[in-house]
Amino acid sequence: MYRTLHEQYPYAHCELDFDNPLQLLVATVLSAQTTDVTVNRVTPALFSRWPGAADLASADRTEMEEVLRPTGFYRAKTNSVLKLGAALVENHDGQVPPRLADLVKLPGVGRKTANVVLGNAFGIPGITVDTHFGRLSRRMGWTDEEDPVKVEHAVGRLIPRTEWTMLSHVVIFHGRRTCHARRPACGACPVARWCPSYGVGETDPEEAAALLRFELAPGAGAKGG
Ligand code: SF4
């Protein structure tokens, strides 16, 4: 199933824009409860105004709130970014540490964010269990686990470690484009023949094809969508 999904989405990648580990870390924190497209709209202004961890730590709160406002929950997110910048300066000389154990100690950073950063900014394989990954792993019969950490370990045992980052991308792409939370496009799904959940969504090929969201318009990649 993974190989087929990889063939379907050979270009699967992290959909957040970033130039360095700090940018990806901050962008991932900002992506909570919003789309990657929305985050990508605000991060150029954020990183040109405050390029380093020390800049983020000492930023004017009101000014940053204005920049982050389009991402929603902007007061909480500003708070997270200020604290994150401060913790990086205090504990890691302003650098993003390339270790899971260090990353998850940073304020506002959980395993999911840490694995995104490890896999995409440092090339260290990681499985990113977001809402799509958890839902699809269960639908495709890879695991029954609900807890994201248990899903990560269970699926990690099935797939070679070197594939973990790409696996995360293709499963998330499949969740965003085909196997939606509501009305998955089963009739247009490349792994339907092996999927124990085939039929939970639309099975008519034409109706299913109309549900595909291959070319995402800005804002169309809604989380859980
Ligand atoms: S067959 Fe349906 S439920 Fe299974 S992976 Fe495809 S779209 Fe999702």
UniProtKB/TrEMBL annotation:
Annotated positions binding [4Fe-4S] cluster: 179, 186, 189, 195
Pfam families with a match to the protein in the record: EndIII_4Fe-2S, HHH, HhH-GPD
UniProt keywords, alphabetically: 4Fe-4S, DNA damage, DNA repair, DNA-binding, Endonuclease, Glycosidase, Hydrolase, Iron, Iron-sulfur, Lyase, Metal-binding, Nuclease
Top-level taxon: Bacteria
One Gene Ontology term of the molecular function aspect: endonuclease activity
Co-factor(s): [4Fe-4S] cluster
InterPro entries membership: DNA_glycosylase, Endonuclease-III-like_CS2, Endonuclease3_FeS-loop_motif, Endouclease-III_FeS-bd_BS, HhH-GPD_domain, HhH_base_excis_C, HhH_motif, Nth
Residue ranges occupied by any HhH-GPD domain in the UniProt entry: 30-177
Keyword Membrane carried by entry: no
Record carries keyword DNA repair: yes
Cofactor binding note of this UniProt entry: Binds 1 [4Fe-4S] cluster.
EC number per UniProt: 4.2.99.18
SMART domains, A to Z: ENDO3c (SM00478), FES (SM00525)
PROSITE patterns xref list: ENDONUCLEASE_III_1 (PS00764), ENDONUCLEASE_III_2 (PS01155)
Its biological purpose: DNA repair enzyme that has both DNA N-glycosylase activity and AP-lyase activity. The DNA N-glycosylase activity releases various damaged pyrimidines from DNA by cleaving the N-glycosidic bond, leaving an AP (apurinic/apyrimidinic) site. The AP-lyase activity cleaves the phosphodiester bond 3' to the AP site by a beta-elimination, leaving a 3'-terminal unsaturated sugar and a product with a terminal 5'-phosphate.
Family: Belongs to the Nth/MutY family.
Cited NCBIfam families: nth (TIGR01083)
Protein name: Endonuclease III
Species of origin: Janibacter alittae
Lineage start: Bacteria, Bacillati, Actinomycetota, Actinomycetes, Micrococcales
